[in-house]
Amino acid sequence: MLIDFVKKYILVNLDWSALRWLLVGFSTFLIDYFIFVNLYTRLPLMVANFVSTSVAVAYNFSLHKYWTFDNSMTHMSAMIRYAIAMLFNYLVNTGVVKMAFIFGLAPFVGKFLAAGISAPTNFFILRLFVFKRKCSAEQKTTTYEQPEFYRDDNS
Questions:
Q1: Residue 70, by phi and psi: left (phi above 0), alpha (psi -120 to 50) or beta?
Q2: For residue 53, is it within any domain?
Q3: What range defines the domain where residue 109 resides?
Q4: H or E segment at 13?
Q5: How far apart are CA 91 and CA 43, in angstroms?
Q6: In angstroms, rounded to a whole number, what is the distance separating the alpha carbons of residues 103 and 108?
Q7: Mean pLDDT of 60-76
Q8: Which residue, 82, 94, 97, 124, has most beta carbons within 10 Å?
């Protein structure tokens, strides 16, 4: 009974976009981090952060739109929402990098900390604001049916 419940209600409804987001996010972090580490000794700190973040954002948007969330929203509409979300993310990221530098931490440590701080909210911002899906009328009227082993005898 429990195996049937898991198959029917959990595996079927598993949101694979979270796993794809994790893969894209990790690869985006690697791109951003390694570009930043290679540039911050040659350029001003904020310029190095801007360049690395810009490259990472372009990569990230493309993969999230077409693979992670498989979004059918117009490109311009999604891009505007994404730009707003990434501006917020960039400000948090830059603030953490700058604060780490002020407190005497190496900039690459600050960049790593910034990723850890912004990552938890990033998925939800992208999923619920940037690449949100519209529900069809059928999805809105779908009701949840309790599995057999949860029903009492009067059901």
A1: left
A2: yes
A3: 17-134
A4: none
A5: 19
A6: 13
A7: 78
A8: 97
